[in-house]
Every structure is written in structure tokens, then in C-alpha cells.
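Changelog entry: the Phosphonate ABC transporter ATP-binding protein record was regenerated in this release. Current contents:
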Amino acid sequence: METYLKIEHVSKQYGQFTALNDISLDIRKGEFICFLGPSGCGKTTLLRAIAGLDLASSGKITQGGKETTFLSPEKRDFGIVFQSYALFPNLTVSENIGLGLRNQGKDNKTVDDAVNHWLEVIGLPDAGIKYPNQLSGGQQQRVALARALSLSPGLLLLDEPLSALDAKVRSHLRDEIRRLQRKLGITTIMVTHDQEEALAMADRIVVMNHGVIEQVGTPQEIYQKPASRFVADFVGNMNFIPASVVSEQDIRIGETLLPKPCDSLKRGVQFELGMRPEDLHFLEIGKQTASSFPVKIEELEFQGTYVRAECRVQGEYQGGTIKVDVPIRELRELALERGHYHFVNLSNKHAHIFQAQT
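Regenerated C-alpha cells:
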């Protein structure tokens, strides 16, 4: 598929502070991309550089074959939706949606037809005569989306569009935006710090930290094959279990010897074993294996479809607690309770190796 937006070696400095450091990225036509990362990682700065709201200090941005690096926002082809909706409170919903079209000099009938079309698309056909303050937050956000899309932009930019909404509305609107984006086939970039949102919505996720890209990949790749400890820690839950290589065959966790998870680990190396809570599991009493180690259950947190067990590794152990996700059915079969001792089994297939934290 053709590249629609090309970002080459883009950097952005604010005085001594580097907000973006040599960012390169290709975005394909019709893709839904999420920029994901903690506050201050550079994701909004990158979005604003693409929009021309904050010009890059160096590098090159090409959209649809045309260089846009230093163009003013009005000369670029995009629609943008902010976290704050940014609707005009003194204009009706219809007037808000039609404003851009009127500014382009479109006649009344064209504007009215477009407004009615978009009110239908966002599921608010009767809201045209209302003012923004008469709508809920979720409805206002849909109007902001319709306003951005009414000009048929080549690129849709979403800056944390759902973070001001409550969980249920957010989940519903998430599905709506994704459905609409697929239907229109519009290239979309969304900035978010919510990993669940990114995993649910994106074709590809760009994980950022300290102004650089840590990893680009599909939600499955980011989750199952994190490229760095930061990505593993930021996306989903990950246990980091301190371990050391004690022989050609064995590693030590706490006071237990276990088979080496990969051949490349050399004797004497200290490392961290990364394991998702759902990839660890308890064994029935008396059924421990060569790949299991003993723990004491300290907490059991009910999470709906599963229970998260917080466990302490027995013996001399430098790490914190280990989380194990147990499906409800399994919980009943194993009769797990706080204070009980059990064996946890490691699966090398799901293990990630990270350098020990100094």
C-alpha cells in the first residue's frame, strides 16, 4: 500500500530541550495509527508538527507527495479534533459543522446538505438546532468529529479525543470512531496515553518515550514482542523477575534452579525475565515441574473474568511481588486463598529477556 505521510528525520527543540529527536516514520493511506506514550514523550509535539501548529526544527514531512514541513496549517490537508472539543458555544451544532464549508465559499444548499449528511453519520440527526451546552460530552465530541470530517480532509488528526469522557461513553465512541474511519478509509493519527485505547483501535501503534520512537508495530506485535523494557512495562502488565545464570543449563530465581529460557544467556549474567500475568499459571498441589518455583499468595484481586494473584517468591529474592492472572474456573479448581503456598509454572515460549536494572 502506498505511503501517504512520510516523516523523515524530524526534530523539534525548545531552547535547550529536545522534544523530538530524529523521528522517521511512514504512514500508509487509510491506516489508523496511534501515537502512544506517557506525558511529555513527544507524541502531541509530533502531531502538531504534522498539522503545522508547531513547525519542526529540522527534517522533512511529506503528505500525499507534497512537502508540507514548513507550510502554515491552512495550506495543509487535514481535519483535527482536540480533547477539549473546541466548539463555538454561540453557534448551533449545524452552524459549527458548516462553518468550514461556508468559509470556503460554498452555497447554502451545499452546506445544508453536507451538515445533514454528517448529522446522520454521527447519529445526531435532530441535534442541528441545539447549542453545544445542550449536548453531553460524548455528543459534543461527535460534533467536533463531524466538523473535522465535513471538509473531506486527506488526514484526520485526533489529539486525546476521548480522555475527557467517562469510561462507558469512551468505549462506545471508540467503536464509533473506528467504524467511521474504516467506512471512510481516511488516514488517521490519534494521540493517546491510554494503552487499552491504542490496542483496541490502531492498525499500528507508535510507542514513544523521551522524544524518540521505541517501537512501531501492530497491537499484537507491541504486546507480544515488546522491543524494549520500556515498551514491555508501558503496554499491558509485565512481571520483571530478577534472575541469574548459574550454569550452562540453569538459571536461579529466588532459591530455585530452573532451565535456561534461551541459549544465548552466558553463565554469571544477571537479567530480568519478563512474563505477562496471563502467561504464568499455578500448578495443582504436588504437581510441580522442573520449570516451577514456590510462591506465597499475598493478595487476590477480583477482576471480573479472572482473579489477579499477587505472590511473593519464597527464599532469598530481590524482586517485588509477582502477578498471576487466574481464570475464575481455575481459581475454583485450585482452591486458591491468601496465605497459601503454591508453585507457579514458567513457560519459556512466553518469556522475554531484559538487561538487569542497575
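The longest helix spans residues 167-184.
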